[in-house]
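Late entry, evening session. Most of the bench is empty. Finally got around to the prediction I had been postponing all week. Sequence below, unchanged from the version circulated by S.P.
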Amino acid sequence: MAMYIAVKREGKWEVLFSHVNGDDLIKRCDTKKQAEALIKVLETGHNVKENEMKYYLGSLNITLGEYEVDTAIRFSANGNPRLKIHDIAEDFYGNCYCEDDGTYYFNGGEVAVEVGCFEEVSKEVFDSIPNQIAPVLWGKREDE
């Protein structure tokens, strides 16, 4: 599961976004209290005005057996969109297990989902796009 963590390294506190792909450094803080306060803001969206929803288009990279499907998704978040898209990937196909290779696995490994990219869009653009956008089917991987 993706989450924010605070780690002390070389006398400084680092706030990291920890997910199955690894850890991304968000910011270095002088004290643990500053790091914990930053994590609270990031997780709860307190820096976002109440009821100020933001809208995003994103992608999930899905492997179904020998096929790869890049699926475009739309989602909204009243807080951190990176956490939201990881939650979507984690819940994509039921119960998952995660490996260190940055992938959420389902159905005994038959289905694999990776988080792609995402971008903020206006509410008008978000509303003009249907809930389900047609996926692009790429077929068998070249490396197999």
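Two things to note before I forget:
The first strand starts at residue 3 and ends at 9.
The chain has three helices and nine strands.
Will write this up properly tomorrow.
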